[in-house]
Amino acid sequence: MKLLEDRIKKDGEVLDGDVLKINSFLNHQVDPQLMMQCGEEFKRLFADQKIDKVLTCEASGIAPGVMTAYVLDVPMVFARKKKPSTLNDAVYWADVFSYTKKVNNKICVEEKLLHKGENLLIIDDFVAQGEAVKGMVNIAKQAECNIVGVGAVVAKTFQGGSDWVKQHGLHFEALASIDSFKDGQVHFGKEN
Amino acid sequence: MKLLEDRIKKDGEVLDGDVLKINSFLNHQVDPQLMMQCGEEFKRLFADQKIDKVLTCEASGIAPGVMTAYVLDVPMVFARKKKPSTLNDAVYWADVFSYTKKVNNKICVEEKLLHKGENLLIIDDFVAQGEAVKGMVNIAKQAECNIVGVGAVVAKTFQGGSDWVKQHGLHFEALASIDSFKDGQVHFGKEN
Asked: Which family does it belong to (chains A, B)?
Protein backbone atom coordinates (compact mmCIF):
# COMPACT_ATOMS: atom_id res chain seq x y z
CA MET A 1 0.00 0.00 0.00
CA LYS A 2 1.99 2.88 -1.37
CA LEU A 3 0.26 5.54 0.74
CA LEU A 4 1.32 3.72 3.90
CA GLU A 5 4.88 3.10 2.71
CA ASP A 6 5.24 6.77 1.85
CA ARG A 7 3.96 7.74 5.28
CA ILE A 8 6.37 5.34 7.00
CA LYS A 9 9.26 6.80 5.00
CA LYS A 10 8.16 10.32 5.87
CA ASP A 11 7.27 9.92 9.56
CA GLY A 12 8.72 6.62 10.82
CA GLU A 13 11.81 6.60 13.01
CA VAL A 14 14.24 3.70 12.91
CA LEU A 15 15.59 3.05 16.41
CA ASP A 16 18.33 0.71 17.62
CA GLY A 17 17.50 -2.99 17.60
CA ASP A 18 15.50 -2.99 14.36
CA VAL A 19 12.67 -1.07 16.00
CA LEU A 20 10.44 1.15 13.88
CA LYS A 21 8.62 3.86 15.78
CA ILE A 22 5.48 5.14 14.09
CA ASN A 23 3.93 7.03 16.96
CA SER A 24 2.74 9.88 14.77
CA PHE A 25 0.03 7.96 12.90
CA LEU A 26 -0.40 4.42 14.29
CA ASN A 27 0.88 3.64 17.78
CA HIS A 28 0.19 6.74 19.85
CA GLN A 29 -1.18 9.44 17.58
CA VAL A 30 -3.49 7.88 15.00
CA ASP A 31 -4.42 9.13 11.53
CA PRO A 32 -8.06 8.04 11.27
CA GLN A 33 -8.32 8.65 7.51
CA LEU A 34 -5.29 6.44 6.92
CA MET A 35 -6.74 3.78 9.24
CA MET A 36 -9.94 3.81 7.16
CA GLN A 37 -7.88 3.37 4.00
CA CYS A 38 -6.08 0.44 5.66
CA GLY A 39 -9.49 -1.06 6.47
CA GLU A 40 -10.59 -0.70 2.85
CA GLU A 41 -7.38 -2.31 1.66
CA PHE A 42 -7.83 -5.27 4.03
CA LYS A 43 -11.38 -5.66 2.72
CA ARG A 44 -10.02 -5.80 -0.82
CA LEU A 45 -7.22 -8.24 0.06
CA PHE A 46 -9.56 -10.66 1.85
CA ALA A 47 -12.48 -10.14 -0.55
CA ASP A 48 -12.64 -13.85 -1.40
CA GLN A 49 -13.35 -14.76 2.23
CA LYS A 50 -16.50 -14.76 4.31
CA ILE A 51 -15.68 -12.77 7.44
CA ASP A 52 -17.94 -12.73 10.50
CA LYS A 53 -15.75 -10.86 12.95
CA VAL A 54 -12.45 -9.03 13.29
CA LEU A 55 -10.16 -10.08 16.15
CA THR A 56 -7.39 -7.74 17.25
CA CYS A 57 -5.40 -6.93 20.39
CA GLU A 58 -5.31 -3.81 22.54
CA ALA A 59 -4.12 -1.12 22.33
CA SER A 60 -2.61 -0.29 18.94
CA GLY A 61 -4.61 -2.93 17.06
CA ILE A 62 -7.90 -1.27 17.92
CA ALA A 63 -7.77 1.67 15.47
CA PRO A 64 -6.99 -0.38 12.33
CA GLY A 65 -9.17 -3.23 13.65
CA VAL A 66 -12.26 -1.12 14.17
CA MET A 67 -11.91 0.58 10.78
CA THR A 68 -11.55 -2.81 9.06
CA ALA A 69 -14.61 -4.07 10.92
CA TYR A 70 -16.46 -0.89 9.91
CA VAL A 71 -15.87 -1.37 6.18
CA LEU A 72 -16.64 -5.11 6.48
CA ASP A 73 -19.77 -4.29 8.53
CA VAL A 74 -18.95 -6.88 11.20
CA PRO A 75 -18.17 -6.61 14.94
CA MET A 76 -14.61 -6.29 16.23
CA VAL A 77 -13.30 -7.98 19.37
CA PHE A 78 -10.09 -6.79 20.97
CA ALA A 79 -8.14 -9.18 23.17
CA ARG A 80 -7.35 -7.64 26.53
CA LYS A 81 -3.95 -7.68 28.20
CA LYS A 82 -5.45 -7.71 31.68
CA LYS A 83 -8.69 -9.24 32.81
CA PRO A 84 -10.79 -6.21 33.82
CA SER A 85 -12.86 -6.29 36.99
CA THR A 86 -16.03 -6.36 34.88
CA LEU A 87 -14.83 -9.45 33.03
CA ASN A 88 -16.57 -11.82 35.40
CA ASP A 89 -17.29 -14.54 32.86
CA ALA A 90 -15.12 -17.33 31.48
CA VAL A 91 -12.29 -16.24 29.21
CA TYR A 92 -9.83 -17.84 26.81
CA TRP A 93 -6.23 -17.09 27.77
CA ALA A 94 -3.08 -17.16 25.65
CA ASP A 95 0.56 -16.40 26.37
CA VAL A 96 2.26 -13.62 24.45
CA PHE A 97 6.02 -13.61 24.81
CA SER A 98 7.58 -10.16 25.00
CA TYR A 99 10.97 -10.09 23.28
CA THR A 100 11.67 -6.66 24.73
CA LYS A 101 11.07 -7.69 28.33
CA LYS A 102 11.80 -11.45 28.03
CA VAL A 103 8.62 -12.37 29.87
CA ASN A 104 5.37 -14.09 29.04
CA ASN A 105 2.41 -11.75 29.12
CA LYS A 106 -1.14 -12.92 28.70
CA ILE A 107 -4.07 -11.85 26.58
CA CYS A 108 -7.67 -12.90 27.04
CA VAL A 109 -11.02 -12.87 25.28
CA GLU A 110 -14.35 -13.53 26.94
CA GLU A 111 -15.59 -16.94 25.76
CA LYS A 112 -19.07 -15.78 24.86
CA LEU A 113 -17.75 -13.27 22.32
CA LEU A 114 -16.33 -15.99 20.03
CA HIS A 115 -18.55 -18.72 18.63
CA LYS A 116 -17.64 -22.10 17.20
CA GLY A 117 -17.43 -21.97 13.41
CA GLU A 118 -17.24 -18.17 13.18
CA ASN A 119 -14.94 -16.82 10.47
CA LEU A 120 -12.35 -14.53 12.06
CA LEU A 121 -10.04 -12.07 10.38
CA ILE A 122 -7.12 -11.33 12.70
CA ILE A 123 -5.76 -7.78 12.41
CA ASP A 124 -2.61 -6.52 14.08
CA ASP A 125 -0.81 -3.21 13.83
CA PHE A 126 2.71 -4.64 13.80
CA VAL A 127 3.87 -8.18 13.05
CA ALA A 128 7.53 -8.70 13.99
CA GLN A 129 8.12 -12.02 15.77
CA GLY A 130 4.34 -12.34 15.61
CA GLU A 131 3.79 -13.11 19.28
CA ALA A 132 0.48 -11.24 19.55
CA VAL A 133 -0.75 -12.96 16.38
CA LYS A 134 0.27 -16.37 17.79
CA GLY A 135 -1.73 -15.57 20.93
CA MET A 136 -4.78 -14.57 18.88
CA VAL A 137 -4.50 -17.70 16.71
CA ASN A 138 -4.32 -19.75 19.93
CA ILE A 139 -7.49 -18.10 21.27
CA ALA A 140 -9.32 -18.51 17.94
CA LYS A 141 -8.46 -22.22 17.99
CA GLN A 142 -9.63 -22.64 21.58
CA ALA A 143 -12.94 -21.11 20.47
CA GLU A 144 -13.04 -23.44 17.42
CA CYS A 145 -13.34 -20.49 15.07
CA ASN A 146 -12.11 -20.50 11.46
CA ILE A 147 -9.23 -18.12 10.84
CA VAL A 148 -9.77 -16.70 7.36
CA GLY A 149 -6.54 -14.75 7.45
CA VAL A 150 -4.14 -12.46 9.26
CA GLY A 151 -3.71 -8.85 8.22
CA ALA A 152 -0.85 -6.70 9.47
CA VAL A 153 -0.65 -2.97 8.94
CA VAL A 154 3.15 -3.30 9.07
CA ALA A 155 5.20 -6.52 8.96
CA LYS A 156 8.90 -6.83 9.62
CA THR A 157 9.28 -9.89 7.42
CA PHE A 158 12.82 -10.67 8.60
CA GLN A 159 11.72 -11.33 12.20
CA GLY A 160 9.77 -14.52 11.60
CA GLY A 161 6.18 -13.64 12.45
CA SER A 162 4.86 -13.48 8.90
CA ASP A 163 6.65 -16.75 8.04
CA TRP A 164 5.08 -18.42 11.08
CA VAL A 165 1.60 -17.37 9.91
CA LYS A 166 2.17 -18.70 6.38
CA GLN A 167 3.76 -21.94 7.65
CA HIS A 168 0.55 -22.53 9.58
CA GLY A 169 -1.39 -22.41 6.33
CA LEU A 170 -2.98 -19.04 6.98
CA HIS A 171 -3.58 -16.34 4.41
CA PHE A 172 -1.27 -13.48 5.38
CA GLU A 173 -1.37 -9.92 4.09
CA ALA A 174 0.70 -6.94 5.18
CA LEU A 175 -0.02 -3.42 3.97
CA ALA A 176 3.67 -2.56 4.33
CA SER A 177 6.33 -5.30 4.41
CA ILE A 178 9.71 -4.24 5.69
CA ASP A 179 12.67 -6.35 4.56
CA SER A 180 15.41 -4.56 6.46
CA PHE A 181 16.55 -1.40 8.16
CA LYS A 182 19.93 -1.45 6.43
CA ASP A 183 21.84 1.80 6.97
CA GLY A 184 19.07 3.08 9.23
CA GLN A 185 16.64 3.27 6.31
CA VAL A 186 13.34 1.44 5.84
CA HIS A 187 13.55 -1.03 2.93
CA PHE A 188 10.24 -2.42 1.73
CA GLY A 189 9.72 -5.83 0.15
CA LYS A 190 7.46 -6.74 -2.73
CA GLU A 191 4.54 -8.19 -0.80
CA ASN A 192 2.43 -5.08 -0.54
CA MET B 1 -28.66 9.35 21.94
CA LYS B 2 -31.62 7.02 21.83
CA LEU B 3 -29.88 4.36 19.74
CA LEU B 4 -27.18 4.03 22.40
CA GLU B 5 -29.63 4.02 25.31
CA ASP B 6 -31.64 1.29 23.61
CA ARG B 7 -28.49 -0.74 23.08
CA ILE B 8 -27.45 -0.33 26.71
CA LYS B 9 -30.89 -1.46 27.86
CA LYS B 10 -30.74 -4.45 25.51
CA ASP B 11 -27.14 -5.60 26.01
CA GLY B 12 -25.76 -3.92 29.14
CA GLU B 13 -25.37 -5.90 32.35
CA VAL B 14 -25.69 -4.21 35.73
CA LEU B 15 -23.21 -5.74 38.17
CA ASP B 16 -22.77 -5.23 41.91
CA GLY B 17 -21.26 -1.92 42.99
CA ASP B 18 -23.02 0.24 40.38
CA VAL B 19 -20.94 -1.26 37.59
CA LEU B 20 -22.33 -1.39 34.06
CA LYS B 21 -20.74 -3.98 31.81
CA ILE B 22 -21.08 -3.27 28.10
CA ASN B 23 -18.57 -5.72 26.75
CA SER B 24 -20.70 -6.66 23.77
CA PHE B 25 -20.41 -3.35 21.90
CA LEU B 26 -17.96 -0.96 23.63
CA ASN B 27 -15.41 -2.37 26.06
CA HIS B 28 -14.33 -5.71 24.60
CA GLN B 29 -16.42 -6.42 21.52
CA VAL B 30 -17.00 -3.21 19.60
CA ASP B 31 -19.84 -2.30 17.24
CA PRO B 32 -18.04 -0.15 14.66
CA GLN B 33 -21.23 1.21 13.07
CA LEU B 34 -22.44 2.38 16.48
CA MET B 35 -19.02 3.91 17.20
CA MET B 36 -19.27 5.87 13.94
CA GLN B 37 -22.72 7.10 14.95
CA CYS B 38 -21.27 8.16 18.31
CA GLY B 39 -18.55 10.06 16.43
CA GLU B 40 -21.15 11.83 14.30
CA GLU B 41 -23.14 12.74 17.40
CA PHE B 42 -20.05 14.18 19.12
CA LYS B 43 -19.37 16.23 15.98
CA ARG B 44 -22.91 17.61 16.14
CA LEU B 45 -22.72 18.33 19.89
CA PHE B 46 -19.40 20.19 19.62
CA ALA B 47 -20.20 21.80 16.26
CA ASP B 48 -19.70 25.32 17.65
CA GLN B 49 -16.08 24.55 18.53
CA LYS B 50 -12.88 24.53 16.52
CA ILE B 51 -11.27 21.15 17.15
CA ASP B 52 -7.70 20.36 16.13
CA LYS B 53 -7.24 16.97 17.77
CA VAL B 54 -9.06 14.29 19.74
CA LEU B 55 -7.42 13.08 22.96
CA THR B 56 -8.52 9.79 24.47
CA CYS B 57 -7.08 7.02 26.64
CA GLU B 58 -6.29 3.39 25.83
CA ALA B 59 -7.86 0.92 25.48
CA SER B 60 -11.64 1.38 25.37
CA GLY B 61 -11.46 5.06 24.43
CA ILE B 62 -9.72 4.29 21.15
CA ALA B 63 -12.71 3.01 19.15
CA PRO B 64 -15.06 5.95 19.87
CA GLY B 65 -12.07 8.32 19.80
CA VAL B 66 -10.84 7.29 16.37
CA MET B 67 -14.35 7.41 14.88
CA THR B 68 -14.90 10.90 16.30
CA ALA B 69 -11.55 12.00 14.90
CA TYR B 70 -12.51 10.43 11.56
CA VAL B 71 -15.72 12.43 11.20
CA LEU B 72 -13.97 15.59 12.43
CA ASP B 73 -11.08 14.90 10.03
CA VAL B 74 -8.44 15.51 12.71
CA PRO B 75 -5.78 13.27 14.31
CA MET B 76 -6.45 11.29 17.49
CA VAL B 77 -3.94 10.79 20.28
CA PHE B 78 -4.46 8.06 22.83
CA ALA B 79 -2.81 8.38 26.23
CA ARG B 80 -0.86 5.26 27.13
CA LYS B 81 -1.03 3.47 30.45
CA LYS B 82 2.56 2.30 30.22
CA LYS B 83 5.47 4.00 28.58
CA PRO B 84 6.34 1.69 25.67
CA SER B 85 9.96 0.88 24.91
CA THR B 86 9.71 2.93 21.70
CA LEU B 87 8.57 5.98 23.64
CA ASN B 88 12.07 7.33 24.01
CA ASP B 89 11.14 11.00 23.99
CA ALA B 90 9.85 13.29 26.72
CA VAL B 91 6.31 12.61 27.89
CA TYR B 92 3.65 14.30 30.00
CA TRP B 93 2.55 12.12 32.91
CA ALA B 94 -0.64 12.23 34.94
CA ASP B 95 -1.97 10.15 37.82
CA VAL B 96 -5.21 8.26 37.35
CA PHE B 97 -6.65 6.92 40.58
CA SER B 98 -8.28 3.51 40.29
CA TYR B 99 -11.31 3.23 42.58
CA THR B 100 -11.48 -0.50 41.94
CA LYS B 101 -7.89 -1.16 42.98
CA LYS B 102 -7.32 1.85 45.29
CA VAL B 103 -4.04 2.71 43.61
CA ASN B 104 -2.69 5.51 41.48
CA ASN B 105 -1.97 4.45 37.93
CA LYS B 106 -0.31 6.69 35.42
CA ILE B 107 -1.04 7.72 31.86
CA CYS B 108 1.34 9.46 29.51
CA VAL B 109 1.41 11.31 26.20
CA GLU B 110 4.54 12.08 24.24
CA GLU B 111 5.19 15.82 24.49
CA LYS B 112 5.71 16.37 20.79
CA LEU B 113 2.20 15.12 19.96
CA LEU B 114 0.49 18.01 21.77
CA HIS B 115 1.19 21.61 20.83
CA LYS B 116 0.62 24.79 22.77
CA GLY B 117 -2.67 26.41 21.80
CA GLU B 118 -4.12 23.35 20.08
CA ASN B 119 -7.84 22.81 20.56
CA LEU B 120 -8.43 19.38 22.07
CA LEU B 121 -11.66 17.44 22.34
CA ILE B 122 -11.32 14.83 25.09
CA ILE B 123 -13.28 11.63 24.44
CA ASP B 124 -13.75 8.82 26.94
CA ASP B 125 -15.82 5.66 26.79
CA PHE B 126 -17.04 5.79 30.39
CA VAL B 127 -17.10 8.70 32.81
CA ALA B 128 -17.86 7.57 36.37
CA GLN B 129 -15.63 9.26 38.96
CA GLY B 130 -13.91 10.75 35.92
CA GLU B 131 -10.38 9.82 36.89
CA ALA B 132 -9.19 9.16 33.33
CA VAL B 133 -10.72 12.47 32.21
CA LYS B 134 -8.97 14.29 35.09
CA GLY B 135 -5.68 12.74 33.94
CA MET B 136 -6.26 13.84 30.34
CA VAL B 137 -7.23 17.37 31.45
CA ASN B 138 -4.03 17.46 33.51
CA ILE B 139 -1.94 16.45 30.47
CA ALA B 140 -3.74 18.93 28.19
CA LYS B 141 -2.96 21.71 30.68
CA GLN B 142 0.71 20.69 30.94
CA ALA B 143 0.84 20.97 27.14
CA GLU B 144 -0.92 24.38 27.29
CA CYS B 145 -3.65 23.15 24.96
CA ASN B 146 -7.21 24.51 24.96
CA ILE B 147 -9.79 21.96 26.03
CA VAL B 148 -12.86 22.61 23.91
CA GLY B 149 -14.90 19.96 25.69
CA VAL B 150 -15.20 16.48 27.11
CA GLY B 151 -17.37 13.86 25.44
CA ALA B 152 -18.33 10.62 27.16
CA VAL B 153 -20.02 7.74 25.40
CA VAL B 154 -21.57 6.79 28.75
CA ALA B 155 -21.63 8.87 31.95
CA LYS B 156 -22.70 7.68 35.36
CA THR B 157 -23.77 11.14 36.50
CA PHE B 158 -24.18 10.11 40.15
CA GLN B 159 -20.49 9.29 40.59
CA GLY B 160 -19.09 12.80 40.32
CA GLY B 161 -16.98 12.76 37.15
CA SER B 162 -19.38 14.74 34.96
CA ASP B 163 -19.92 17.29 37.76
CA TRP B 164 -16.15 17.70 38.13
CA VAL B 165 -15.83 18.46 34.40
CA LYS B 166 -18.61 21.07 34.49
CA GLN B 167 -17.30 22.64 37.72
CA HIS B 168 -14.03 23.18 35.90
CA GLY B 169 -15.85 25.24 33.29
CA LEU B 170 -15.61 22.64 30.55
CA HIS B 171 -18.30 21.82 28.02
CA PHE B 172 -19.45 18.29 28.86
CA GLU B 173 -21.56 16.00 26.71
CA ALA B 174 -22.54 12.40 27.32
CA LEU B 175 -24.30 10.30 24.70
CA ALA B 176 -25.98 8.29 27.46
CA SER B 177 -26.30 9.69 30.99
CA ILE B 178 -27.14 7.17 33.67
CA ASP B 179 -28.81 8.55 36.80
CA SER B 180 -29.05 5.32 38.78
CA PHE B 181 -29.14 1.55 38.71
CA LYS B 182 -32.13 1.39 41.05
CA ASP B 183 -33.57 -2.14 41.24
CA GLY B 184 -30.80 -3.43 38.98
CA GLN B 185 -32.14 -1.45 36.02
CA VAL B 186 -30.45 1.29 34.02
CA HIS B 187 -32.20 4.65 34.53
CA PHE B 188 -31.24 7.39 32.11
CA GLY B 189 -31.26 11.12 32.84
CA LYS B 190 -32.31 13.92 30.56
CA GLU B 191 -28.92 15.09 29.40
CA ASN B 192 -28.66 13.06 26.23
From this structure: Belongs to the purine/pyrimidine phosphoribosyltransferase family. Xpt subfamily.
